[in-house]
Design a protein that fits this description.
The protein is an alpha+beta fold. It folds into two domains: about 230 residues, Hsp33 domain (3-Layer(bab) Sandwich), CATH 3.55.30.10; about 50 residues, HSP33 redox switch-like (CBS domain Like, Alpha-Beta Complex). Helices cover about 35% and strands about 30% of the residues. The protein has a five-stranded antiparallel β-sheet, with helices on both faces. Strands 5-4-3-8-9 form a five-stranded antiparallel β-sheet. Helix 5 crosses helix 7 and helix 9 packs antiparallel against helix 10. The model has no long low-confidence stretch (mean pLDDT about 95).
């Protein structure tokens, strides 16, 4: 089954809802970066959240960048999403040690840390990007996204994320949901959603039992009911090209490019977001140098 997210609203019109199955895109991200189980769980949650947040923007040619710096062993997690919800990302340290809350339960909070911030950069195709940042509360990422929306964008939000890593280190299931209250929402709606969230339980358990994103929203929205508006297939997708890498090399400046030429060796450039490697011969660098 391919990954997809589903967007909708509660039947009373007072809450926006989105849920995602992200198993394949998280698996791809883990494969590219060679993450160990704790890093896979943390990176996977960030990719899942980034996909839903990027899809919510609906700005043509825009993008959303999610950065999490918690001071933990994984370092900085960076995720970039396009308007559809396709994501790419990287982590500072993919080979973090195994840390468990209890046997079989990875401790994502200890991997990410709490001494830092969650930052969202929205490129809305305007003069300047919107940048919002708030303090991390748990390092579990779902809680931190919830806190970000509450404090930085003043939007009451509930975000739940889950990545289940199997014993062979492969991603068994991954996904999540995000709920946002709209202005004027009555207390009855808030209470019903809180009860639904409690009743639904952990995202990984629902996914492991075969629930689809539609099923998950049905569980969470409960008696409120949900109207589905749009389904979008999503994937781990990088937009790197040789031309973009050339522009990055130009930014190194004349002196550094000349030093590369003098070494007389092919110069490899690896994309930080995917496993693409672009090879530049000394002659290629000379052509780039003419553009500086």
């Amino acid at each position: 089954m391919s990954d997809y997210l589903i967007r909708g609203m509660t039947m009373d019109g007072f809450a926006k809802v989105v849920a995602i199955r992200s198993t394949e895109l998280v698996s791809r991200g883990a494969q590219i970066h060679g993450t160990t189980p704790n890093a896979t769980a943390a990176f996977g949650r960030a990719l899942t959240a980034g996909s839903m947040m990027g899809n919510m923007q609906k700005v043509e040619n825009g993008s959303m960048t999610l950065q999490i710096r918690g001071g933990g062993p994984i370092g900085t997690i960076t995720v970039v999403s396009d308007p559809e919800g396709n994501v790419r990302g990287c982590v500072t340290e993919p080979k973090v040690p195994l840390v468990e809350k209890y046997p079989g339960k990875l401790d994502v909070g200890a991997t990410v840390g709490t001494d830092g911030t969650i930052t969202v950069i929205r490129d809305l195709q305007m003069k300047e990007p919107y940048i919002g940042s708030t303090q991390l509360v748990s390092g579990e990422i779902g809680d931190d996204v919830t806190a970000y929306f509450a404090h930085s964008e003043q939007t009451p939000t509930a975000c739940a994320l889950g990545v289940l890593v199997d014993r062979d280190t492969r991603v068994k299931v991954a996904g999540g949901y995000l709920i946002q209250m709209l202005p004027g929402a009555p207390e009855e709606t808030v209470s019903a959603l809180e009860e639904g969230i409690q009743r639904a339980g952990a995202v990984t358990a629902m996914l492991e039992h075969g629930l689809t994103p539609e099923d998950i929203l049905g569980q969470v929205c409960g008696t409120l009911g949900v109207t589905f508006l749009e389904r979008t297939e999503v994937s781990y997708k990088c937009y790197c090209t040789r031309e973009r890498v050339e522009r990055a090399l130009i930014s190194l400046g004349r002196q550094e490019l000349e030093e590369i030429i003098q070494e007389g060796k092919t110069f490899p450039v690896e994309c930080q977001f995917c496993d693409a490697i672009y090879q530049f011969t000394p002659e290629d660098i000379r052509k780039i140098l003419k553009k500086v």
